[in-house]
């Protein structure tokens, strides 16, 4: 029989040794990314955060870097004067999984159409690992045919889209569009990675 502390440790070990590339995009749900990083690290994962410019308006690189224990990547260039850059190909090869949470309508559209305006999209196009997206946007955006079509297209590419649970949104509306809670993302990510390997 497993005691409660042992069960807790077993659950924490579900991502042990996994390299997770976490993309954070410009959505109000980006505030949850700090908790998500903490949970991923607690589950034993090595986490590298890629933050889009829009996401930095909601959560700071300092917060995510402190929790992940790695510098947060925000653009292609590391040191422009020295000609140093973040190699999106190496990042895509390094990761066991690319998790984009929250995935905004804008980023979903860019990924579905092969656009590459930022480091995160470049990493996505270079990634050989499984890709997971946790959509986060308002009700009407989530229901829009363009977003529905983009999500279907991403699924057809073999990407895994987490369900968006109904609930209260930042606008005050009720319905789907919320980002799946970080605890649920970590559990589902561990299950899917086990299935895929």
Structural account:
By secondary structure, the chain is an alpha/beta fold. 42% of the residues lie in helices and 18% in strands. The chain is globular and about 40 Å long.
Which residue ranges are poorly predicted, with pLDDT under 50 across at least 5 consecutive positions?
1-13
Number of helices: 9
Radius of gyration: 16 Å
Distance between the termini: 28 Å
Number of domains: 1
The CATH top-level class label: Alpha Beta
Please state the overall shape, judged from the principal axes of the Cα atoms.
globular
Any idea of the CATH topology? Rossmann fold
* Secondary structure category: alpha/beta
As a percent range, the share of strand residues is 15-25%
Order of helices and strands: HEHEHEEHEHHEHHEEEH
CATH architecture: 3-Layer(aba) Sandwich
Protein name: Flavoprotein domain-containing protein
Organism: Hymenobacter saemangeumensis
InterPro entries: Flavin_trans-like, Flavoprotein
Domain Flavoprotein: 19-189
Keywords:
two-stranded antiparallel sheet, alpha/beta, Flavoprotein, Flavoprotein domain-containing protein, 9 helices, 9 strands, five-stranded parallel β-sheet, disordered N terminus, Rossmann fold, Flavin_trans-like, 197 residues
Reconstruct the topology from this structure:
Elements: H1 4-12, E1 19-24, H2 33-42, E2 46-51, H3 61-68, E3 77-79, E4 84-85, H4 88-94, E5 97-103, H5 105-112, H6 119-126, E6 131-135, H7 139-143, H8 145-156, E7 160-161, E8 167-168, E9 174-175, H9 182-196
Parallel strand pairs: 1-2, 1-5, 5-6, 6-7
Antiparallel strand pairs: 3-4, 8-9
Helix pairs in contact: 2-3, 2-9, 4-6, 5-8
């Amino acid at each position: 029989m497993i005691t409660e502390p042992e069960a807790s440790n077993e659950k924490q070990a579900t991502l042990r040794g996994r390299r997770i590339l976490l993309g954070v995009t410009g959505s109000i749900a980006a505030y949850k990314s700090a908790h998500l990083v903490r949970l991923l690290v607690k589950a034993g994962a090595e986490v590298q955060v890629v933050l889009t410019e829009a996401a930095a308006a909601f959560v700071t690189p300092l917060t995510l870097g402190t929790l992940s224990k790695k510098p947060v990547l925000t653009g292609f260039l590391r040191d422009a004067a020295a000609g140093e850059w973040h190699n999106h190909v190496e990042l895509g090869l390094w990761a066991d999984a690319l998790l984009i949470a929250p995935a905004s309508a804008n980023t979903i559209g860019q990924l579905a159409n092969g656009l590459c305006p930022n480091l995160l999209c470049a990493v996505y196009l270079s990634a050989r690992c499984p890709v997971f997206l946790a959509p986060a946007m308002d009700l009407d955006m989530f229901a829009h045919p363009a977003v529905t079509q983009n999500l279907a297209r991403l699924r057809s590419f073999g990407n895994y889209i987490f369900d968006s649970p109904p609930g209260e949104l930042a606008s005050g509306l009720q319905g789907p569009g919320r980002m799946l809670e970080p605890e649920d993302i970590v559990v589902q990510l561990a299950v899917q990675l086990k299935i895929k390997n």
